[in-house]
Amino acid sequence: MTVSDKFSVLVFSRDLDPYSLRMLHELERIGHTVHVVLEPLRSATSRDWGTEISVVERVKLNGRFDKHAAQRYAEQVAQCKPDVCLCYTSRALSVALTARRRHHFKVPVIGSRGAIGGVSAWYLQDWFTYLSPALDAVTCMSQAIANKLSHEARRFYPKHPGMFEVIYPGYGQLMDEHEPIGPRHRSTSERVRLLCVANDRPIKGLAVLLDAVEQHLASDDWQLDIVGQCGEAIRQRIAQSPKLQQHVVAHGFRSDVPDFFRAAHIYIQPTLQPGEGIGNSMAEAMSFSLPVITSNVGGGIELTEHERTGIHFEVGNPVALGQAIDRLIQDPVTCDALGQAAAQTLQTRFSLHNEALAFVALFKQVMARLHR
After folding, report:
1. Which of 12, 32, 46, 281 could hold 92 in an S-S bridge, CB 3.0 to 4.6 Å?
2. Between the CA of residue 233 and those of 13, 210, 250, what are the distances in Å?
3. Do residues 79 and 113 share a domain?
4. What's the pLDDT at 120?
5. In terms of domains, do 260 and 294 share one?
6. Are strands 192-197 and 292-295 parallel, antiparallel or unpaired?
7. 198 and 166 within one domain
8. Beta bridge partners of 58
9. How far is CA 131 from CA 69, 100, 110, 126, 140, in A?
10. Spatial CA neighbour of 346 closest among 146, 172, 130, 96
11. DSSP annotation of 255
């Protein structure tokens, strides 16, 4: 194989998302061929990706080991003659592995997770699928996820042959979804808007965030907006504290999340465990030129650089988090500088083109291993 080789890629998935679609379009733009197999449209309002990319067949997946669906997958492999199969959802990946086992095709199968970030969002069945030694490779959105999967794979299968490769999403595309956002030029007397967009799972660290702003924040003129599903414990914590009642608003799910990014001055993601991925909301915040405060574990420290595009604090330490927030509240110039640098790094290090090239490099690796 040479560097100029072009690949034919057959994608199996239950559905697509905008991130995945744009990456596939970028593969096509640089000369590769992409065909997609999806499930039938679920309703009249479902987005028809077939108007935007070549959907060669729609296959209903009745379970992870659907033999009929596996046969139809194998038929598409025979018809399209791809160099690699790329699977964006765990059920489609399970069916693709069943198809290869039952119909004996040699095409490499690569698993991916679309726009889903950390392993905390996985179901038990996902673990069995992505740790399968029959997989040729798994793409991971962060090194934190790759490390976790690699560790677990070797724990269950000491001679696991698969590759867990980090391919950062092309978050630079987020810059095209809204107007350019410049410095806020906030005055030190202006009320500061803090923002956290996260569903209330323990790994997200919302309790640590509330501890920090309630007990360890010297500044008084601020508001914290929490956007996403909040459990009863978080809501009760806010309701029972006069200070949190005055300064914190738990909004729940909202359809106008971009407006929160526009209004905010500082974005906070207090991740608690290394297995958490980068987080799309953090990347969105950076696209709106917001500085990011995140803990020093998980995918957040791969997306941001300490003291250049954000600030990292000691994980689980509300005192350190409060100090980091206070620092940016009191220094709007540094706040703007970090935010502008954050937006710039999305367009360079995390560009869509770089993501597509990383997939091509992985395709070359698995093809070279197949030939050996």
Report:
1. 12
2. 36, 12, 12
3. yes
4. 58
5. yes
6. unpaired
7. no
8. 38
9. 22, 17, 12, 8, 12
10. 172
11. S
Identify the band that residue 73 occupies on the pLDDT scale cut at 50, 70 and 90. very high
Specify the DSSP class assigned to residue 299: T
Token look-up 């905390």 returns 120
pTM: 0.88
Across the chain, mean pLDDT equals 92
**What are the residues whose beta carbons fall under 8 Å from the beta carbon of 139, sequence distance 6 or more?**
110, 111, 112, 113, 165, 166, 167, 359, 362
What is the predicted pLDDT for the residue at 114?
60
Give yes or no: residues 188 and 237 share one domain: yes
Distance separating alpha carbons of residues 193 and 213, to the nearest angstrom: 12
By residue range, what is the domain housing residue 17? 8-170+351-371
- For the chain, what is the domain count? 2
Distance of alpha carbon 48 from alpha carbon 40, whole angstroms: 9
User: Which residues does 156 contact at the CB level (< 8 Å), separation at least 6?
Assistant: 131
Residue 119 located in a structural domain: yes
Calculate the CA 86 to chain-centre distance: 17
Could you tell me which residues come within 8 angstroms of residue 297 by beta carbon, excluding any fewer than 6 positions away? 144, 271, 272, 273, 274, 276, 315
Cβ-in-10-Å burial (0-12, 13-18, 19+) of 233 comes to exposed
User: At residue 82, what are phi and psi to the nearest 5 degrees?
Assistant: -75, 160
Contact criterion met (CB below 8 Å) for 155 and 182: no
Task: State how beta strands 109-111 and 137-140 pair.
Answer: parallel
Does 3 reside within a domain? no
Q: Which residues 6+ apart lie within 8 Å of 30 measured at CB?
A: 353, 356, 357, 360
Token pair in block for residue 179: 């107007």
Tell whether 2 is covered by a domain. no
114 sits in the region (left: phi over 0; alpha: psi -120 to 50; else beta) called left
Give me the CATH number covering residue 250.
3.40.50.2000
**Tens digits of residue pLDDT in 152-202:** 888 888 888 778 999 999 999 999 999 999 999 999 889 999 999 998 888
